[in-house]
Amino acid sequence: MSAPVPLTHHEILELVAPFSRRGRRVDLATSDRIARRLRFKPLEHPAQAPLAWPLQEEMELESFAADDHRVTRRLRTPEGLEAVLVADGPAVEELVERVHAVPPARQFRQGPGWTAALAHRARRLGNGVESIILTDAQARVAGLDVKMKVSSVSGVNADLELMPAPGRALALPDDLLAVLGWPWTCIARLREGWGGALRLKGDGSERSADAESKFQRTLEHLAHTLAAPPQVFHQRMHRERWRVTLRRAVPLLVSIALIAGAAMVPMIQLAQNSVWRMLVFHSPAFLLMLFFCLGEMPRLEFPPLPRLARAGSWEPVTPADPA
Any idea which of 84-93, 211-220, 302-311 has the lowest mean pLDDT? Predict the structure, then answer.
């Protein structure tokens, strides 16, 4: 691939004109003419309802070709959470309007004990309607940094990541989020935190709205649960934890049933042209197709029974701590 042609002075004047009309000033010191990237001087937004804190706004323009541009807006909170809005298209003027049409407060959510910043991609639908699609989200809640990455492919689960704040250790049950219902999977221990998945419905704007709603419900659940001792979680979610256990046992029970059914096939007298004989003969192919249709591969496991936690805190007791 050939190296990009650096931006000329004339091109810069044309590209920044839509921004200048909105009071934005280009920052040539931080821009990169060779990479065809222009940055603008940051803006400070004072705290304004419904947000309780000020925001720092940064904006940049990437010009890949004469008819291929990208405008990126970054909104940063004093805590370091960052909401990103990206717009791609051939006309810079239209991209600037598309970005400014999304108010800063639209990309933030907050509640008791949690704050979330959302990343979107602004796009124009075929009927001329403007739409924003969620691509990522991050939040701070009860000593956890929670991140969600949403795939643009319909039917693919969103990835959840729970990381403890620096210097803090937590002991979380693997059904912490799965008790919320079928869309939430159990969390698995990672090297420095936990990972899980979130099942979404629909596509496009519907899928984006579903992701935002379920991410907010996840944060509300974490804030409410981690604010109380682990025993309260077991007592409040006793039935839900047993439902998760039964749900996790389904793949194992189905496998046992299939093995038992295969052993009984020779004992059953089926006609040569029977539909049941055809289904039994092709059952391995049907099961393989079913596995590929699932959002995740089923796990064969003996799920642990939900038990009342003995610890009085979500933070594990170290040997140095008093018993």
Answer: 302-311
User: Taking the model in full, what pTM does it have?
Assistant: 0.86
What does the block give as tokens for 13? Answer: 């004047």
Q: Is 170 helix (H, G, I), strand (E, B) or coil?
A: coil
What letter would DSSP give residue 91?
Answer: -
Going by their DSSP bridges, the two strands 194-198 and 188-189 should be labelled as: antiparallel
Q: Express each pLDDT in 127-172 by its tens digit.
A: 556 789 999 999 999 889 999 999 988 889 999 999 998 888 889 9
Residue 190: is its pLDDT beyond 50?
yes
* Alpha carbons 59 and 73: distance in angstroms, whole number: 5
Provide φ and ψ at 54, rounded to 5°: -75, 165
The DSSP code for 278 is: H
Nearest Cα neighbor of 159 from 178, 140, 175, 137 is 137
Q: What pLDDT score does 282 carry?
A: 67
Please give the mean pLDDT across all residues of the chain. Answer: 87
Distance CA(30)–CA(142), nearest Å, equals: 36
147, 222 contact by CB (below 8 A):
no
Residue 294 has pLDDT above 70, yes or no: no
pLDDT, average across residues 3-22 = 92
Structure token pair of residue 216: 């907010």
